[in-house]
User: Fold this.
Amino acid sequence: MSNKNFGKRKKSQSFRPSGGMRNKLLKKEVEKGREDMENGRLLDEPVFDHTHEAEILKAENKAFGVKEEKPEDTPPPQPKEETGIIAQVKKFVRKLLPKKPSGKEIIISAESLETRVGIMKSKQLEDFTMERNNDERIVASIYKGKVRNLEDRLEAAFVDIGIEKNAFLHYWDILPANLEKQYEVIERKGKRRKTPRISKKDIPKKYPAGSEIILQIQKGPIGTKGPRATTHLSIPGRFLVLLPNSDQLGISKKISDPKERKRLKSILQDLDIPDNMGAILRTAGEGRRKAYFVRDLAMLMDQWREVKDRIDNEPAPTCVFREPDLIERTVRDFLTDDVDRILIDNKSSFDRMQTLIGKVSPNSKKKVQHYSEAQPIFDKFGITKQLEAAFSRKVNLKSGGALVIDETEALVAIDVNTGSHKGGGKDQSSTILRVNMESAEEVCRQLKLRNMGGLIVIDFIDMKHARDRKKVENKMKECLRKDKAKTHVLAISQLGLMEMTRQRHSESVQSTFHDECHYCNGRGNIKSPVTMSVEIQRKLTEIMRSRDTAEESDFILRVVVNPNVLDRLRREDEDLIINFEKKYLVKLEFRADTSFHAEQFTILNGTNNRELVSVGEQH
Assistant:
């Protein structure tokens, strides 16, 4: 938003146009933000390299008729890590000290129609996930599909997987791929298998229309787009990710301790992984004994054998592996060492969760507790009120400022207002900075809570000093590091706008919770009674001017309208109606119909009841 007290630029300061050298340096990353906001992912990080993501996305947008936008982006800075003897001493001391409660709790409400999971940090809702129990879990599921047609122009195949829309499969998602850059590739013991060489030219011959293909959904249907798929399969476990179609081994680079990395590399190499398969060691495996990985691998191999059996015996199209439900995914992805406890209000789900945790991390079973009080669990821990406040259009800040959030088809617009914080004079800059810093933190929280993705534009309060803009930018990047979704943030522009992208792999919470209003057709507003009065009088004038005066001496027009509009006509516009009757020598009769929409009216010939005009649809 604009600031009325914004100071004028000094003469020594010159305007620096957008573009120039900065754009040249960022040229290689122009499409990276768009790539990440559209690309779904299976875990807390993508598995395979996405070098050709821009090309794939361009073809996907073209296939589904989606207009392409290409915001620039810069990679977020990586946090500096302490090294040397001092860092090792600090780590050793931390191990000796008793573990302090982190204040992190997972609250689960498991009901008949939906399951909700809230992650609390010091009694504040940090993350929220909801799943309708009757919804089909498409993302991360594996299908045996049938190729319907190949589009060489797009270098893509459309595959029938048994749902309404065919899956989009780009040729690059069929060719063998390397692991993502955030994984360190580990050499296998013994000889690696020889991967058959295949190029994009070979794909139409290998997978002609009508042929069967095994694929995994990367991103669910969003808007007009169908699901996006890949043949690079991955099945995540608690500590490992099994790669059935790749023989590569990798370890997450987020595990920074050199000694721990060396130990885990040795464990990964010693695991009995089939020669034609690969595996990723997840960050959750840090500090775990070899037995945990052996047990996790055994469960993953059992899962894959079941999948393989379905692939061999079931006809296409069919789902051969369904992504686990929210309860199981919570155990797999959210049960980390820093979680103090998990509370769940459903006894059968509690028992199931205990069984699941017992398989992957028996020591964590004591963290799970059954909530049996009469008060709903989300009300007990204040989550319901926080959700109501968080999902309203206006979100109030502690400083007195507020966020106004509008989610549209093209982008998410967030406006920062000072609200009751009207600092002035010398303290104005510090007040604006304080509100913007708090807003940056709340924006990051809102993005996670609402599951908003795509292009996001934040209109911060104008800041005079470049150092203040840099502080807000750094605060955004710092808070976004806690977000598992990939994000890319641009510097605050000269207009005070910050553009960013956030990875999107499913519809937002707003889209899931709400239907489009049938009364206003999603506009959020309807025509006022004044506007409708003007339109009615305009139509009446049109009828009278086109009427043959010789037809009837006593001409009567009957107008049927919504009661609110009739109230306007009979009160504020009464004199106008009387003057109209005198001018055109016509008698006007008005009737109210409660079934009429606010924007609907009908004009009838009062003599023969013939309909002359009908405007608006009946709702």
